[in-house]
Design the sequence.
């Protein structure tokens, strides 16, 4: 049982597409407090890559103004501090305990203990979403060290986020809109390592950002592929992507029926539906995820 009690219970599946918004943006208050995008499930206020160092004071002031009138709503709210020092400053802000947690950038073996120590000292209750985007993502040994630390950390990890753009930077690549990231050898191997090291231990992993705004169909195909790889949740950079991900996360009637049968204690160990076998033990984790997706996003209308 977790020693930290959260403000509210959140499943990582509920996050959907997490909209990144620069902390200096004029709409920070409207997005977080005024329900500007009703279909948006979660938002991350960014003080890191989205702003320059000279604007940090303005960013913190903007967050402070937003928090003055902030009340938790259906929208899950997180802040991305620039580094551990800025996290300390953010934790001093009035009403900061009302947000759901922090997206921790460049999470690595070097800073993981410092991040956790700072949050623990605040004596406030938050989720963390470590962003795997440091050079450590290329080392299985370091990824395993991060995993082992998080498994014993008193501050709960809601999900792990994959920093695709930083990964590409290390590899000297720039992903084109039509590229499937899982077909690019270097990134695919890194993502595969993260999945294999973390998911068997109960961690949820969010997919990499799709940084092409005007390609709705390509974005949809990317989200479909993310789900095939077992990645749920992703970073979105434009409101146009909200409805797409909510729609793709809906469940087919066929998958929903199979999931129900797999988890039904009254059914046999082996289930056959439309010529495909399902096993109660081997597919139980998949089935639970399907039922949660149906709970939060519903069934597809065309099924």
Sequence:
């Amino acid at each position: 049982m977790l020693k930290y009690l959260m403000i509210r219970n959140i499943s990582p599946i509920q996050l959907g597409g997490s909209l990144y918004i620069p902390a200096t943006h004029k709409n920070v208050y409207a997005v977080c407090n005024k329900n500007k995008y009703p279909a948006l499930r979660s938002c991350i206020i960014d003080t890191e890559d989205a702003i320059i160092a000279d604007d940090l004071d303005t960013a913190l002031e903007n967050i402070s103004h937003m928090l003055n009138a902030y009340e938790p709503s259906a929208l899950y709210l997180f802040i991305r501090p620039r580094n551990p020092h800025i996290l300390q400053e953010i934790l001093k802000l009035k009403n900061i305990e009302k947000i759901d947690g922090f997206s921790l950038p460049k999470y690595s073996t070097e800073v993981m203990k410092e991040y956790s120590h700072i949050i623990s000292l605040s004596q406030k209750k938050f989720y963390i979403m470590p962003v795997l985007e440091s050079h450590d993502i290329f080392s299985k040994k370091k990824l395993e060290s991060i995993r082992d630390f998080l498994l014993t950390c008193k501050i709960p990890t809601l999900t792990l986020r994959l920093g695709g753009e930083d990964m590409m930077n290390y590899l000297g690549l720039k992903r084109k809109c039509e590229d499937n990231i899982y077909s690019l050898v270097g990134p695919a191997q890194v993502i595969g390592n993260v999945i294999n090291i973390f998911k068997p231990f109960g961690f949820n992993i969010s997919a990499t950002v799709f940084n092409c705004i005007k390609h709705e169909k390509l974005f949809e195909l990317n989200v479909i592929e993310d789900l095939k790889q077992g990645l749920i949740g992703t970073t979105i950079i434009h409101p146009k992507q909200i409805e797409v991900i909510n729609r793709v996360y809906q469940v087919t009637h066929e998958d929903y029926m199979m999931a129900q049968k797999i988890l039904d204690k009254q059914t046999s160990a082996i289930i056959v539906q439309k010529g495909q076998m399902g096993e109660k033990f081997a597919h139980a984790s998949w089935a639970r995820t399907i039922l949660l997706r149906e709970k939060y996003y519903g069934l597809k209308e065309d099924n």
Q: What stands out?
A: Residues 253-297 form one domain. The CA atoms of residues 24 and 89 lie 16 Å apart.
